[in-house]
Amino acid sequence: MTNANNAAIVEISQTAGKFRSSIVLQYDNKYIDVKSILGLFTTLLDAHSYDLHVHGPDAEDAKKAMVDVFTKHNLNVKIVEE
Q1: Gene3D superfamilies annotated for this entry (predicted)?
Q2: What is the pTM of this model?
């Protein structure tokens, strides 16, 4: 894993931690709490496309912030609207 990947994981987790909403990353059949750095280390290993589920009182702001940080690190993410 590169330092760039490490930086992405830390920034993604820190960004998610700013919100009260639940932010869950879906990859294949795995669901990872984005606020968990350990979970991200085991998931964000390759440049794949990820689905993001965001629910809570500040969900709209959280969605925008998460898309921005994933895009900054060249990670493909799609917000799942439920």
Answers
A1: HPr-like
A2: 0.88
